[in-house]
Write the structure tokens for this entry.
Amino acid sequence: MASESHCGEEFKAEIELAEVTPAALEVITLLNRTWPVYEMAVAEFLVNYVKGDVAEARIMTSHLTTDGKLQKLLLLATHHGRSEDEQLFGKIGKLHKSMAATRNVVVHCPLLGVYRPDPTKVVFLKGRFITGTQLTQVSIVRVAKVLAVARFASVYSEVLIKATCRMTSGSLPIKA
């Protein structure tokens, strides 16, 4: 018996699993390859956006989460009156928040299998065994959502990498 966390509701159910399909594994692998590049692109962009000493900027921002770095970029764009940048960072920040939860489940939770009643979903172990019971928490995620998160990471890492290159060569503004 498992406690399923699905759309904010919890209920007890027997989770029927099937083997993970190669297509589902390919999408999960794609996310695992694209998200670190996206995080690096956000970090490098922030370091170069402050236009100071790159080493000092890295020291000052290395402890921040990606969400925190995006918030700093938004604050900097607002401070400098760069409305186009402000809109872009606001957009990326909102999308990031909606994508990060799925990314965290896929990256940090063990993959159990495909949800047998609906093979377009995969099941991840999210919780722990509770002493004296067989209760665990799982998270059921649509493969299409994982693909959307991977695409988001791919698209915005490319946007930020290109913008960083333009910025370091002296040609602004940023274009999404």
Remarks:
- Residues 125 and 138 are 5 Å apart (CA to CA).
- The chain is about 60% helix and 15% strand.
